[in-house]
Amino acid sequence: MTRLADWPDLVEARPSCGRGSALRSEGAEIAHFHSDRMADVHLSAPAIWRLRRDLNGSTALRLVPGSAWVTVRLECESDIDLLMTLVSVALKAHQRGPAGDPAPAGAGDPAPAARCNDRRCVAITC
Fold first, then answer.
1. Residue 26 contacts residue 94 (beta carbons within 8 Å)
2. DSSP state letter for 104
3. How far, in Å, CA of 103 to CA of 52, rounded?
4. Tens digit of pLDDT per residue, the chain (126 long)?
């Protein structure tokens, strides 16, 4: 969180789920930190779909069906590098248009406060 808090497009915020800490950009929650070892990144459904093959190949990531968030297990330096990359992708996915217009259709999630993965459960991981 310390490394990401210095990014100019991110500000620290209270997470919509009410647990841990979060980073937000232009009104969209980008990342939640529920512990020192877990972070959820709000990639958006279209970004997850586009990157699904690569995301599914990583042992550091957990995808929850129907979620626009990806959970990153932070166990080593390469996991932190992966988190930084995914936050960059999330920022791009939630970026506003050139004149401050909302992101183009399909660039973000339709629901403004999409639920992070903190309280979601999948049979494989619960």
1. yes
2. P
3. 21
4. 788 878 888 999 888 888 888 999 986 899 999 888 999 999 988 999 999 999 998 999 999 888 899 999 999 999 999 999 999 999 999 886 444 444 444 444 434 456 777 765 443 343
Structure tokens at 48: 């997850």
As given in the structure block, the two tokens for residue 117 are 């993965």
Q: From CA 33, how far away is CA 14, in angstroms rounded? A: 11
Tell me the CA distances in angstroms from 81 to 52, 53, 84, 112, 119, one per residue in order.
18, 19, 5, 27, 25
Strand partners, 62: 71
Identify which of 85, 77, 80, 72 has the alpha carbon closest to the alpha carbon of residue 118: 72
How much is the pTM?
A: 0.78
Handedness of CA 38, 80, 21, 68 (dihedral sign): negative
In residues, how long is the chain? 126
Is residue 42 within 8 A of residue 90, CB to CB? The reply is yes
* Core vs surface per residue 84-116: b (16+ CB within 10 A) or e: eebbebbbebbbbeeeeeebeeebbbeeeebbb
